[in-house]
Batch of 4 targets.
Target 1
Amino acid sequence: MDLALYDPSFGYYATAARRSGATGDFVTSVDVGPLFGELLEIQIAEMAALIAAGSDARSAGAAGLPFDLVEAGAGNGTLSADILRAARRRHPDLLARTRLHLVEASPAARADQRRTLGDAADRLSSTGQEVAPFDGVLVANELLDAMPVHQVVMREDGLREIFVTEREGRLATIEGPPSSSALAEYFDRLGVRLEPGWRAEVNLRAVDWVRTAARRLGRGFLILIDYGHDARELYSVTHAQGTLTTFDRHVVSDADRAAAPAWLERPGRRDITSHVDFTSVERVANEEGLVTIGFLDQTYFLLGILGQKGSEDLETWEGPEGLKEDLAGSLQTRLALKTLLMPGGLGSTLKVMIFGKNVGQPALAGCSYRMRVT
């Protein structure tokens, strides 16, 4: 999975600046249009104000201190561009002190970032593959699900791992002893028991990434947006065949074929992904000193930012500045909002997990509507 997605010469993500959207293989909230970034900017601005308010009062002009905006898994920078352009309209003072840091594994995507940022490129402070120490807000939108996983299967005689081999000139899978004791320990820490025949994925890379991000954050917030479940749901009979799957031209396939699973076909030319274990993400974040502020469906997160009402009640809605006019005057914006909020689609599939460090446990706009995970 690591080679198929990130190999510099033929990896799926490494060889293209952008893989999502109408002409890509899958759709994210960013592909719906700039509205997602505009809504995120409202939440980020509130977080920036909270960080500034809690800064050392002896620091002259605490509100003028530099603010780090980090986007991990930034791709070509489309989401950050949408956020910064919204900040230019709504919070120019925040924009003036923002230092943008884009974290992206793909050289092709990194090379396209300044073009994508356009008039916001002057805010770009760094771009690279690792999260550097920062004070501010980190956003990771559908990053953890694309990190390489271990796939395991429980047999009568114990846990086995699924490996990739070659058979008659084609890629195929084979079972063997686990490559690391960390795999069994992962389930032991969760108190999870897999039944014989159950398959599951273990994303050790995601846990390590969250640990590193937590340590690099001095003061501020993490906003993680992804699809997945808590461990009790993820490692249950409901997902007993695992969640490892592939997207190709907007078609999802996780069924085993006669010779090999679908995710082994055309490696490097299709997405491979698995659902996130949010229980382990939260556990490692808390172990590293982060406080869980919210865990909720994207629907409820965005409704909180919108002031708890959407586009159907515009006459009485007192929402964020400028959005009422946008929604009233633009059918495209109203349709984008519906797509972002729709239960059964992006609204309920995507979950938002928010952590804070050295900021207390503030009542954020994004957590003000309903703290619910479906």
Target 2
Amino acid sequence: MPPRKVLLTGALGMLGRRVRERLAPDWDVVATAHSAAEGVRALDVGDEAAVRECVRGLRPGVVVNCAGYTAVDRAESEPDLAWRINATAPGTLAEACAEVGALVVHVSSDFVFDGTKRTPYVETDATNPLSSYARSKEAGERFVRERASRHVIVRTQWLYGPDGKHFPGTIRRLAREGKPLRVVDDQTGVPTYAPDVAAAIGRILETGLNGTIHVANRGQATWCEFARAVLARAGEGATVTPITTAEFPTPARRPAYSVLRNAVLEATIGDTMRPWEEALAAFLPSTSKPAS
């Protein structure tokens, strides 16, 4: 049997690279990104005509959408662009997938919640986005549900990994530069390792699970706790001073509590996501690139 064909968008991003790596042995992965690179085709997901033409031409069995506008604060001044990439584009992909009978897997965010809950969010909890970025992500989910005949929405959070800019790399760089480390201690979530999410996406595809699915490492932490754990693992002696969100104002509002519980995985194929501390321990020894 020939390999099953997957169209992957956002293949040069932090998660997209890991998804491509995870699926490549068993799937015929057609990797795309906004700009072409070796082994990666150019596809602007914001170009509706190009997206439809690509899906019709390839006729994949699965489309995995890892493309996204991720500049949370900049989205407050670029709401139209955030909407085009995070809302309109997933809707177009969903329509194109329905046309060729493909499954669409769309990556979303904990930002769809408002953070007023004090126990972990499950997939059936009501959404209430607080910012321009969050509203665009919530709309992307809705458009996928409404327009795709078959879909998976993967919600994840606080991603870091071997590629691109991420919180652990920034904290380590600031520590080495001797910069003061004042980190918010009243926002709680789950630090989540991108390769673990990619592995979960592979399992979801292999088992045929569908619907909205939370995929995050287990446990919870504040950003301050995460920063201290990063420095402890890295052997850095810098001091982290806890501060409040009010002391570090940003253009976009963040949910104060956005811990995701992988309830669907628990009830179906099993939740194999490890505790976030174990994932961090697996990540840091392999970090050889300069922190960004």
Target 3
Amino acid sequence: MKSMKKDDHPLQAVTSIESGELNLVSLASLIRKYAPHDGRFELSIPGVYVTRDSRINTELVHAVAKPSLCIIAQGAKKVMLGQEVYEYNASRMLLFFVDLPVTGQVTRASRAEPYLSFRLDFDPRKVAELVLKVFPHGLPRVREGRAVCIAQSDRNIFNAVIRLIELMAQPEEAELLAPLIIDEILIRLLRSPIGVRVAQLGLEDTGLNGVAKAVSWLQANFSESMRVEELAELAHMSVSSFHQHFKSITSMSPLQYQKVLRLQEARNLMLTKIMDAGTASWHVGYQSPSQFSREYSRFFGNSPAKDIARLREEGFTTVDISQ
């Protein structure tokens, strides 16, 4: 797999944002408080999550990452999109700009020092509202890149995140102040060197937005037959332009994207609903069980039966298909 280096595509590389001393101890302490044991916890503020994991992942976690900002207070993680690897820790933030089927792995964690992270889901309507304030004279042009990037951590964003989580202890104040702090976080991202990429989340007439519309359709209808011409029309692009934009942004073709969604969902159904491979493959849209078995084995490294048996033996009762 290809790791992101500093000289890679400028929108995938480690991008410099205003740096400074990060208040990691305070942020880690707050996350521990609201993630009292291993798992992901949604806070009372919509779209805000904290996660705790006290062990390194030996099993790759397959997930559909939502447009979001991900910050680590302690530990480290890597996320894989196709053949590309994005590694981050407290010194780097990870951002997603469209829904992406990815695999993730916590690479540094222990009971004494668990992996602790924060996630803020992006609201495109709120981003669009703030773009008008941050870019009153219009956006500068930028070359389109992947729908995921890594940026250097920003102490001002860290401090805003700390203040946001601290509000959990004051529900009445949280209702009034949390939206303002989230606005602050978004404004600081928009004013950073990756701000134009963040801004495209809220704009209608961008390749990113067109691909996002197609991705939404694929997620809602992954078991249906797919016609690229219809997806291109939904994205308001020609078929050739749509193919180019989709692969540039997601690193895969629409057909590959649909296949990953189907395989992830089939795995989840077999593990959680106790379905056999044939039934699960039919539920996710496969017409041929043998084709499903071949593609499943290539993707997960084992046949459906062996893979599910191994997961159950290792104590897995669910697989995370949402970030």
Target 4
Amino acid sequence: MINIALLGYGTVGSGFYEILNNNKAKMENLVKSKLNLKHILVNDLKKERKSLKNKDILTDDYSRVIDDSDIDIAVILIGGRESAYQYIKDFLNKGKIVITANKLVLSENYFELMRLAERNQTHIFFEAAVAGGLPIVTAIKEYLPGDNIYEIDAILNGTTNYILSVMEEKTISMKETLNIAQEKGIVEADSSEDLEGRDAAHKISIIANLAYDISVNPQDIPSKGIEGITSYDIIYASELGYKIKLIASIKNINNKIKIGVRPHLINKDEYLAAVDGVHNAVEIYSEYTNRLRFEGKGAGKYPSANAVISDLIKASEAVKERKAKFEVNIIDNTETFDLHANLKQSFYIRIQIEKNDEIIDQIKAIFSEEDLAELFFKDNMTETPILPVIIITKNILEEELEDILTEIEEVNGVLTVNNIIPIKEKFRDF
């Protein structure tokens, strides 16, 4: 018999319980052992939990769970940092297998927890921490260990993807879209973690650590979110054949790992451009497998819980086979490079100017000096005295572009440079 403790009975925890309870016979047949959910740790014992059949296993006493020597696997599905971090460490120090979906704790303490698992001859599983129901961790660890991964591009935040999709569909502002998302429970009351790109940075750091055997702190990943994007940008991008997506990217360029999180314009016929709503997607380009694509709900009760169940099967097999050592290369913090500071790419730029064709001519002249402008587009339909001008540049380093834009801002009649968004280049065809 394999004894399991579940810590946390929120959205994902209750989903895990339901799937385990509904498919227990099938899962026990897979692992050739009985699965016994012995404890569920919660904060409030009085809270109603309609899906829970056996309330006798509920407890609010952590010591009762951590001190139970019969526990084989701890499924830790609580959010936040401090408590989850402590629980994970406690169980690893007890030599117990840990399964977690907590991306914050995992990404910020990745190699500390890996070292702890190795030192205590146990394991830590975290499929649900990266992209909900998408099997990215499994793909990288089990299917690509001998491959050379050139690039990973991913939509890893369902909230921002939903917001951009609704803004495009309904032609409404981000504020209005946020209200809709909050009513549907898609976004937290504090949406800054999503909108500023930090959530995606946490997830891409875990992927980078897995894919390249490196140690990346998410705080070191340059991240820019979608806060400045307006429905005008989405309309203009669409007219030019693009969609706007928040993309987390990793490139291996001459054995230097370059990472960044940024909104991008993506050609409408590209794979990631078609991923809408709360879905996540990951594209992996490698030497031998060439291209792998994954798409599905990146969060939510059942997709995330199903990923936890997948880890439970692996963890149960590890218990039975007594696989002692967590297989990971333990290394120190790795220097990575700002992908977008080191990459020549084309950019979408939206500038607000006074309605005057002479101003446009001056802007064109500045770009023409370096032969850097690919396209100019002005919105003559606006009824205000302000004229939006859209520029698509040729390939240029962002630092060089900023110097040019500083010169443009000094032109009399240029009011603001509203947005600078890189355009995602197509990866080579295989």
